[in-house]
Design brief:
Gyrase A, domain 2, Rossmann fold, seven-stranded mixed β-sheet, six-stranded mixed β-sheet, 44% helix
């Protein structure tokens, strides 16, 4: 990396602290051109990771702040290069003037994710840890935070590396016997290869099985809110989000399309989907909305089936409950409008489909009963599942696809071995599995894939 980059690393809004970050071969020289310590020599002569108090100047040499500075030299820094950081008062005007001064002193604007990308390219982070940085920044639930920190600490890297090394040992033994026939090396046997492939297959299956929960942690579990028109779905949707997102009117059929928003509820990141009321209709727009409601049920991980507690359940209510029960998904019967409660209903054993996880009576208008719903949701998505191995889950499609290709290569090798192919043909499949695992951690990742990964990062990280 021949150039030196700089960026504002904090939010561009007034705040107590604003941070500017530099990385590259001229980081020390650039910071010394804009920052003068009150005591002692320039930052290029100061020890690493020591906060120094001094004056920050703009590009004309005019003082603009009294702030702190620190440096870290290569290779013992976040990026693996010489780095410097300025901790200023959080005025956007001060930060802008300081950034302009850094550019004038020889730095250039950092691209999104370029600091972390340099850390990856310089071997400070593998790709799973680099992705964990972005996941931690975007984490929206306590569970997502814990698992992102686990990956940042190398939990997923170690899990993948264990499988990779097991396959590498098989290949190394085979090539050692092949290349050094005169040496006293234990013969390479098909039984050893079969056992190694079996262990790798089981470990890859276990790894692939983590993707569903990891994806839900990262993206949120789809939660469809369904029911007949005017049952209180949109009012509940707004109450769950904490603000008015969906339009609510007394007119049945107001919602004609699905409306989707993410929010943490019961410690779980959910993608709440407000749907059009389920009923037969001749209105073309409403009919399309009902079709989308049915599609939302199909892709949901949780269903909230809402009925109006102020009225006796109707045929349309029964049909909505039946759809939720027949979906095979976990669902909760939400009896809305508790503040206007009228004749009730209960789930009986003779109804078709899966019984609800719970029946919760609430008022989305007053908030009464929402805590009970939150406890029920939390019980359906226990947060202690997998906590002993936090950070070992696959969380995005790129990781899952690489793990799947590795598993397919191992399976091809096992099938070839069972069919009587020679070990060298089987080892070729083993090497393909290793290549796929290398893409997962970044050993063999392509440049275009790397570029896409770092596009979701913030500037300054």
């Amino acid at each position: 990396m021949p150039d030196t980059i700089a960026a504002i690393a904090t939010c561009p809004a007034p705040s107590a602290i604003g941070i500017l970050r530099l990385s590259g071969p001229e980081a020390m020289g650039v910071v010394d051109r804009v920052f003068v310590p009150f005591r002692g020599g320039p930052m290029g002569e100061r020890p690493d990771r020591t906060l120094i108090y001094g004056v920050l100047h703009d590009r004309e040499g005019v003082p603009i702040d009294h702030c702190l500075a620190t440096v870290s030299r290569a290779p013992h820094s976040y990026t693996g290069e010489d780095t410097a950081e300025l901790q200023c008062h959080g005025s956007p005007a001060v930060l802008t003037l300081a950034l302009e001064a850094l550019f004038h002193a020889g730095a250039r604007q950092a691209q999104a994710g370029e600091f972390t990308r340099r850390a990856f390219l310089n071997g400070r982070l593998d790709l799973t840890r680099a992705e964990a940085v972005a996941d931690l920044i975007h984490a929206e639930s306590p569970a997502a935070v814990r698992h992102a920190v686990g990956r940042l600490g190398g939990a997923l890297e170690r899990a993948v590396e264990g499988i990779y090394q097991e396959l590498a040992d098989l290949c190394a033994h085979f090539h050692a016997v092949l290349d050094y026939p005169d040496e006293d090396i234990e013969p390479f046997e098909a039984r050893e290869l079969a056992q190694g492939l079996g262990r790798a297959a089981a470990e890859l299956d276990a790894l692939a099985a983590t993707y569903r929960r990891g994806r839900l942690l990262d993206e949120g579990a789809p939660c469809a809110i369904v029911g007949r028109p005017n049952a209180g779905k949109s009012t509940l949707f707004n109450a769950l989000l904490g603000y008015e997102r969906a339009i609510v009117t007394p007119v049945p059929g107001t919602t004609r399309d699905t409306v989707e928003e993410r929010s943490s509820f019961g410690g779980v990141l959910l993608r709440f989907i407000d749907t059009a009321g389920l009923r037969e209709t001749d209105d073309e727009a409403e009919r399309l909305g009902v079709e989308r409601s049915r599609a939302a049920i199909e892709r949901a991980e949780l269903i909230l089936a809402v009925t109006d507690g102020s009225e006796t359940p109707s045929r349309e209510d029964e049909e909505a409950l039946g759809m939720a029960a027949a979906s095979g998904k976990p669902w909760i019967w939400v009896v809305s409008k508790r503040d206007l409660m009228g004749p009730g209903a209960s789930w009986s054993a003779d109804r078709a489909g899966r019984a609800p996880a719970a029946v919760v009576s609430l008022s989305a208008k007053t908030g009464e009963g929402l805590e009970e719903l939150e406890r029920t949701v939390a019980a359906l998505f226990p947060q202690d599942a997998g906590e002993a191995q936090a950070g070992t889950m696959l969380t995005n499609a790129r990781q899952a696809e690489a793990a799947q290709r590795a598993r397919q290569a191992v399976e091809r090798g096992a099938q070839a071995l069972a069919a009587g192919f020679s070990p060298d043909a089987v080892v070729a499949d083993v090497e393909q599995a290793m290549s796929a695992l290398g893409e997962l951690t970044g050993r063999t990742v392509r440049e275009d894939v790397t570029a896409r990964i770092f596009q979701r990062f913030c500037v300054g990280k």
